[in-house]
Design goal:
alpha+beta; 19% strand; 388 residues; 11 helices; 6-stranded antiparallel sheet
């Protein structure tokens, strides 16, 4: 190997060693190859077929389809980063091993731990890049892609939930025996939200002691000046604790001091893939007010996954390096096959772990990070075993 050849990394102090620069260059070529390969595969499977179907069945213009394809690309680039890191380390170290270059390096006293440092440094850099794309570029691009598609199909995408807005509100009460428990305080239901007004409302109000109220109204809107809800053309049924009617009040206009959370809940129309971490945290605060535990758990898992996903690059970097360093003659086709099997197994494990988190069996943190911890422990074990 000619490690004295001039290269662009020479000026970087981090790679002052000729060996480090040589290994980094060996990793970059398959990394770029993997980025192109996995991004293309992801786009073909995940979006191209769907766009072709919409072009033929719904008349989506090709120019708009191409624009949507470009906007969806960051989402698949995010997924391609870890896969490419695995492929790059597998191919690079396998090539060095098959050409006996690793034997030469180890014969002069270079340890296995030292050999994988360039791959580890590169994987940390790719992790930062993945986080940037995953948190800042992909959510914004996904949202623009969804809006562009809806406009092209003449279906203006609303920024709010249109039908069946349900908002339960809970409170903590103290029982005579001193114990505390959570009970329903108020239940807000609207048949429809048109962007300004709630339509067809029914509200069960249990916020007052010994009195329950049922309010029905044709429409309601949020009063920004007074921070209350304005209800129009409705009826209030006041019910005693024994279930009998106490009073019935009909009104044309009635103001009630109910939280605006139902409005916030209805206006939030983005999916988790269209929100960055800050936006997802804000939405989580709104969901917490609703008391919908399943949706809260799901969003918590998705937030943790946004953080944990980039670190797969480090895990794959270590695993790929260790497997590539094995003294076996592995060609590129075999490396690619091993890469596919590892990726499939890892993402299957991630899907299973994520489901356990949504079902409440695992905590959101553990559901998102368990595959990373498992991969890191496995990679470290293989590394220590190889070094002996």
């Amino acid at each position: 190997m000619n490690i004295n050849k001039k290269n662009p990394l020479t000026s970087l102090p981090l790679f002052s060693s000729l060996m480090d620069r040589y290994l980094i260059l060996e990793l970059i070529v398959p990394l770029l190859f993997g980025m192109g390969l996995f991004t293309s595969l992801g786009l073909s499977i995940g979006i191209v077929f769907e766009l072709v179907r919409k072009m033929t069945e719904s008349g989506l213009p090709p120019s708009v389809a191409f624009q949507i394809l470009m906007l969806k690309m960051p989402e698949f680039i995010v997924l391609a980063f870890p896969m490419s890191m695995l492929l790059a380390t597998l191919m690079a170290y396998s090539r060095l091993s098959s050409d006996s270059e690793l034997i030469a390096l180890r014969s002069i006293g270079i340890s296995i731990y030292r050999l994988i440092i360039p791959a580890l440094i590169l994987s940390i850099f790719i992790t930062g890049l993945t986080f940037f794309f995953n948190n800042f570029i992909a959510p914004m691009a996904n949202y623009q892609a969804a809006v562009t598609l809806e406009k092209a199909l003449s279906r203006e995408r609303p920024d709010f939930k249109e039908n069946n807005i349900i908002y339960p509100e809970y409170k903590r009460v103290e029982r005579p025996d001193g114990s505390r428990e959570t009970v329903l305080n108020r239940l807000f239901y609207a048949e429809e939200f048109d962007g300004r007004n709630m339509i067809g409302l029914t509200i069960l109000d249990r916020s007052q002691e010994n009195v329950n109220q049922i309010l029905t109204a044709k429409t309601a809107s949020w009063n920004i000046v007074d921070n209350v809800w304005d209800f129009f053309h409705g009826t209030i049924y006041i019910i005693d604790t024994d279930g009998s009617y106490r009073n019935i009040v009909r009104f044309e206009h009635q103001q009630l001091a109910i939280p605006r959370a139902p409005l916030d809940l209805a206006q939030r129309g983005r999916s988790h893939s269209e929100m960055n971490i800050v936006q997802a945290q804000e939405y989580l605060q709104i969901l917490r007010l609703s008391g919908d535990e399943q949706r809260i758990r799901k969003l918590k898992v998705r937030i943790q996954e946004k953080i944990s996903l980039p670190f797969v690059c480090i895990v794959f970097g270590i695993i790929g390096s260790v497997i590539g360093l094995q003294p076996t003659h592995t060609n590129r086709a075999t490396s690619f096959g091993i890469c596919v099997v590892l990726i499939f197994g890892y993402y299957l494990f991630s899907f299973f772990s994520s489901s356990l988190g949504i079902w409440g069996i695992l905590s959101p943190f553990m559901a998102a990070w368990l595959p990373n911890f498992f991969g890191l422990v496995s990679g470290t074990y293989l590394l220590v075993k190889s070094a002996r």
